[in-house]
Write a structure and sequence with these properties.
The chain has about 400 residues and is mainly beta. About 10% of the residues lie in helices and about 45% in strands. It has three helices and 24 strands. Strands 10-17-16-12-13 form a five-stranded mixed beta sheet, with no helix packed on it. Strands 1-3-6-5 form a four-stranded antiparallel beta sheet, with no helix packed on it.
Length: about 400
């Protein structure tokens, strides 16, 4: 409905603005006004009217939250405070001057572009073909016309890079506004470093009347500063991680995946972005989930989602490892567990099926129930024997 009405407004606007009695002026004068999420914006519509008979000006909305409006005979001020995504849309200023009616429209665009840019890996090595990922977190809009990600060498875009993919995913929702995570991956040519070299990932938000950008540095090393993990010369390809965002059910718990376990051998190298993985193992009083990332130094993982909220679980984090305890009493609720890698923003998810733990009742509970049952049967047999004993 809003789109249909918005298309009709320009048709009437030209006719109405030619009215002899007056005119409408807007401040700011743009037809599209951008306001940041949580920010404030004021729109003023002024009526110039030579006819003293009941001039009037007023803001109207089209199926959208209008905001706070203060009006008098010759001006109307619309104020939007703590802007949310639901307040984006078209506003209409309607003016009356004598027998003439005038209209002006403005589209309010709510955007989010915090300085939350991450890269993976955090450093590159010279003279190697490498893949690098750059992620902008908690942004909107995320279409390529509004948001772009690029690699810079100095103040120029790096030449010879191959764009691999552009991923848009939803961030874990914190409130009523659903924000997005955008990742661009590139394959880099071998980088020569006769002198110390630093690349930059730059995110740019282009909106009507507004251009914003953030940068994150990616140092290029002459060689690895720490020894690389040994690479096995096996003809088989490295298996994919078992816990990903597309997993519907977790497989059987891997061996030795308790909180003190180092986990499986590394499945990534410094030549491509690493990803976190989730392992599960029985523990005293419930299950223990371990999220870990076997990557270059300097990365960290943390839990971002759990059924019923993270506050219901005991958690601890130590760099590239994060543990979460699921008690027996609370693990019968089905749902997703999710952790995230920083920098990089890669996610791992595990869908916990209730049967995994609900049927694994602690042995002490079974033993106690069995003893109580035997005592009850012994008492019942004693009473029956005494009651049914024949008279002498």
């Amino acid at each position: 409905m809003e789109q249909g009405l918005a298309l009709l407004f320009p048709v009437f606007l030209g006719l109405l603005q030619r009215a002899q009695g007056g005119s409408l002026e807007m401040e700011p004068p743009d037809s599209v006004v951008a306001v940041s999420l949580g920010g404030s914006q004021q729109l003023t519509c002024r009526l110039a009217c030579a006819d003293p008979r009941n001039p009037m000006v007023q803001w109207r909305g089209l199926d959208t939250s209008l905001g706070t409006v203060r009006s008098d005979a010759h001006s109307s001020v619309l104020s939007v405070h703590n802007a949310s995504l639901s307040e984006a849309g078209t506003r209409v200023c309607v003016g009356s001057c004598g027998t003439d009616t005038l209209l002006r429209t403005v589209k309010l665009l709510v955007f989010a572009f915090p300085d939350q840019l991450t890269v993976s890996p955090v450093t590159l090595v010279a003279r190697r073909d490498q893949e690098v990922a750059c992620t902008a977190h908690n942004v909107t809009p995320a279409n390529p016309e509004a948001l772009s990600l690029s690699l810079l060498l100095g103040d120029q875009e790096l030449e010879g890079v191959q764009a691999l993919d552009w991923d848009v995913e939803e961030e874990p929702q914190q409130g009523e506004d659903q924000l997005l995570r955008v990742t661009q991956r590139w394959l880099l040519p071998p980088l020569e470093t006769p002198t110390p070299l630093t690349l930059h990932c730059r995110a740019t938000m282009n909106l009507p009347g507004l251009r914003l950008s953030h940068q994150r540095a990616i140092p290029v090393l002459h060689s690895l500063t720490s020894p690389e993990p040994p690479v096995e010369t096996s003809p088989e390809a490295t298996p994919e991680l078992s816990s990903t965002s597309s997993s519907r059910s977790p497989g059987p718990p891997p061996r030795n995946s308790s909180s003190g376990s180092p986990g499986p051998p590394p499945g990534n190298s410094s030549n491509r972005p690493c990803r976190p993985e989730i392992h599960q193992s029985p523990a005293a009083g419930g299950l223990e989930l371990l999220c870990q990332a076997l990557c270059d130094p300097g990365v960290a993982v943390g839990w971002t989602q759990a059924p019923g909220g993270l506050e219901a679980y005991q958690r601890r984090e130590a760099g590239a490892q994060a543990w979460l305890s699921v008690p027996w009493a609370g693990c019968c609720s089905e749902g997703w567990f999710q952790c995230r890698l920083d920098p990089g923003g890669q996610m791992a998810s595990l869908y916990l099926v209730p049967e995994i733990c609900c049927q694994t009742t602690p042995p002490a509970l079974w033993t106690g129930s069995l003893v109580l049952g035997l005592l009850f049967l012994g008492f019942l047999a004693h009473r029956l024997r005494k009651h049914c004993r024949p008279a002498q």
